[in-house]
Every structure is written in C-alpha cells, then in structure tokens.
Amino acid sequence: MGDTRFYHPTAGKYIYLMAYTINEVLALATERGLNPPEWKWKPLKTYNGFTHEQRVVGWQAMHLAIRMKLIEPASAYACEICRATPPVTLQYHSEDYCNLAEHVLCQHCHKLLHQRHRYPEKWCKLVTRYAKGDEWYASLAMTGFNE
Ligand SMILES: [Zn+2]
Asked: What is the DSSP string of 69-136?
C-alpha cells in the first residue's frame, strides 16, 4: 500500500499521508482509464481557505486512490476522536486539501468538527470527553473558517 500512518512531530498529530500527490493520483487514474467520481451534492463551503473546487478535487483524488488501492479505505482504521470502528461509517477528513494528508473520523465526529463554529458547545463536549491534551483536533480554530 502507498499510505503510511505516521506521527507528524511538528504538527503533533497522526496523519495518513499518501506517497502520491493529487496530480500523480489523477494522472495514474487517467492511465488506467478511471474517471473521477462526480460531486452530486450541494456545493461545499470554503474550509480552511480551500474552495469547493479544491475540496472536490481532493475528494476525487482520495476516491480514486482507494479504488487503485494506493490507500486503505477509511474503514480500515478507527475514528481518531472517539475510536469508533465499523459498522460505524468512517470517513477521511482533510485539514489541508493540497496534500493528501488525511485524518480518519466517524461520520458523527466529522459532522461536529465541520459544524464546530455553529454548535461550539457540542464540539467542546466531544473534545473534552476524548482529548487528553495535545490531540490535533483539540487545538482547531473555532472561528475564521467555514464548514
Ligand atoms: Zn468519532
């Protein structure tokens, strides 16, 4: 597999960083005759400065990377916040859509994370319950981003 789970010391977090860039994944997919999946849902809001278009390209690259077995599906891991495993739905979460550096979150924690500025009390309750202090999700900004 091309993915590696490793501890990123400066970021103080675990990330799943692929050995491929977005462009390399897209080029490989083209070579193999695979088309990127279509985004069929409502437009995504800008998150951490990444636009809908950038977020969709990142999502497409992850989708294709899983199809080409360059990275394990998120269901191979546990939620990094609440440690849930399948049959709970697990998803990749990006804080940085330029690099295929991902976190694994269950659907519930993922939703609370993206909506943390709207429902800060729900998010704080979750973080207080699971974080011991230096987890990446415990130090996310509460403002200055959109979902
Ligand atoms: Zn979770």
From this structure: TSS--GGGS--TTT---TTS-EEEEEEETTTTEEEEEEHHHHHHHHTTTTSHHHHHHHHHHH--S--G
Q: Which residues sit with Cβ closer than 5 angstroms to ligand 1, an ion?
A: 79, 81-82, 84, 106, 109
Query: Based on the structure, what is the number of domains in the chain?
Result: 1
Residue positions counted in the chain: 147
Assigned domain for 114 exists: no
- Token code pair at residue 110: 């993922």
Tell me the mean pLDDT in the region 101-125: 93
**CA of residue 101 to ligand 1 center, whole Å:** 18
Residue type, 10: T
CA of 94 to the centre of ligand 1 (A): 15
Residue-range definition of the domain harbouring residue 71: 3-107
pLDDT, one tens digit per residue, over 1-40 is: 445 555 554 445 556 667 788 999 999 999 999 999 999 9
